[in-house]
Amino acid sequence: MRTNFSLAQLADRHLADAEKNLRACVHCGICTATCPTYVLLGDERDGPRGRIVMMQNMLESREAPTPQTVHHLDRCLSCLGCRTACPSGVDYPRLIDVARAHVETHYARPWSDRALRWLIAHVLTQPARARTMFTLAKISAPLHFLLPGRLRVMARKGAAMKVGPISSPAEVSSGTKRIALMPGCVQKALAPEIDEAVARLLARRGFSLVPLEGAGCCGSLVHHLGREDEAKAWAIRAIESFERADGDFEAVLITATGCSSHLKDLAHLFAGDPKWKPRALRFAAKVKDFSELISPRGAENPHRLRVAYHAPCSLQHGLRILGANEKLLTAAGFDVAAIPEGHLCCGSAGSYSILQPELADVLRTRKLANIAAVEPDVIATANIGCLEHLSGGTPIVHVAELLDWAEGGPKPLALHQIARN
Ligand code: SF4
Ligand code: SF4
Fold it and tell me: Ligand nearest 76 Cα, by number?
């Protein structure tokens, strides 16, 4: 596709990357059928090809986008199904990321939208604040009807969360090989048992899991909101913590695939920055997803449960890791069932389920119907966002909890209602 950027515009490395990808798009439309919002809405502007045209017009003009453009770009899940489908190698994140940053700096959103985004950026990224908000949401449940639209949705979601004490797994010293654990954000408040299961799994394989002191959220939540400066601030905090720890670390781990996908791609945030890009590259090179660190093992205590495995988009389209968790679960004695339409997003997508609740709900219902079709005892996934979004019916757990249980660890909390095994 032809582009019309000026030389001055192309001096910006982010725009130069975007332009390269705009030129690579031949408008074949192969990606449209794999785009969840196009599948639901059937509107070209809610598919990747239409969005790419809108992004090009917006970026070339350098002007504020129209409300229509923002409406259709906001509906993109960043699931990256289109990147997987594209035969021309269009790297869609290089477009949507720069487009979101442009919207953030050039478009005046309504105050309610700004308030909601501020809350997401400043509360959900901090475990203690998130925990307080969930607790307040529970206490104030009878008054939720007074809140406006999406704030009400957020309050109801918060009230439904099960919150416990915030904790990190104790360092399990079982070997000389050390892995640094990024603490992350809401998972610490909602499901600290995931990192505890991972610590035990790694200990059995001779690794010590060491919490990375001083690091926090990975920054993907604010990155997807177009808040680039905040995303960089979180990234710098993680990089500095890693460097301070003077890690003879084998790897850096974060146990949610949405976060590991973001961290592996971290250097793109610092395109054209001679100080931080090399440091981001060194850090990102150490990041490993959970499925890359755990080797398959026979089960000490096989539990013959039927597991519907939900592959998060960040794993299959972001990290492009296919089949690894299924192999681990099968080796541990579980009967793993593939879910129909497994390539389609469940609607969680970071803060999407708060910002676009109607579409997120339709995608959730569709995903749960596909899961029900394989009649599972339990759903397993690898990302806290998907786990929370799909919870409420069939028990759902992180893959690590099932593997740990099979290797002699405790039964996952969510499975206590299952009498069998
Ligand atoms: S499949 Fe690739 S080249 Fe074809 S329209 Fe989609 S992004 Fe463009
Ligand atoms: S990232 Fe997902 S929702 Fe966005 S255009 Fe691509 S396929 Fe569609």
Answer: 2
